[in-house]
């Protein structure tokens, strides 16, 4: 049955369907691991033959509900929850960039994000160029290099409250085969859904308005789905690594660099 839920209903209902006689409210599943009757069931989970929970770092029923809810609110295909907004932005970058890569970021950013990008990421070998939100398309495009892997910006910058022209940056990113990553912490999907304007990945510090009670640090990364990761710029996401089939034991010469 196709759901035709409004945002308010998604916020309350999405991600958890109580079973007959089950708890009405999403239970907090405080368990590192999950039990199966036979080893084959766990082997099938490891082999991704079926979905399920086996280790909480990878997936947990409570976190799963939260991920599904935010993914649905944003209109994305899936989400990964993190322990903070800082780690959400770190994961969003580290998933698609590695040492030697480059990211263009709009300079109006939360200070902690700026420091992580300018300093911590630099130590990992990922270089950022910060472009003023006042920059013209030409000025921005001049900063895109062959090793650039994404454009990053905040929907409403913290604390400057500069509004990101999502559509404009999405168009420029897509012209160069890049995803646009948008930190949507301040508006939340209730006030702005960046995917509707062309963004490809959305992050949140859920510590802020999504928590709302000022009790829990958290973050999330959501993917819209449909970005052409196989456009040649992201082989690590779409092609098996040379070491994958045990070739690292067999090869006699070093593998060609991936890029
Ligand atoms: C826009 C934005 N992104 C990310 C962060 C970092 O999130 P956290 O404090 O949950 O690590 C913040 C925190 O203030 C923020 O305002």
What is the typical, i.e. mean, pLDDT?
94
Q: How big a fraction of the residues is strand?
A: 5-15%
The run of helices and strands is HHHEHEHEHEHEHEEHH
Largest sheet: 7 strands, mixed
Question: Could you say which structural class the secondary elements and strand pairing correspond to?
Answer: alpha/beta
Side by side, the strands of the main sheet go 1-7-6-5-4-2-3
Helix proportion range: 25-40%
CATH class category label of the domain at 59-227: Alpha Beta
User: How would you sum up the global shape?
Assistant: globular
Q: What's the alpha carbon Rg, rounded to whole Å?
A: 20 Å
Q: Give me the number of helical elements.
A: 10
Terminal CA distance reads 43 Å
Low-confidence spans:
none
Q: What is the tally of beta strands?
A: 7
CATH topology of the domain at 59-227: Aspartate Aminotransferase, domain 2
Question: Which descriptors would you attach to this protein?
Answer:
binds pyridoxal-5'-phosphate, alpha/beta, 14% strand, seven-stranded mixed sheet, 7 strands, globular, 10 helices, 259 residues, Aspartate Aminotransferase, domain 2
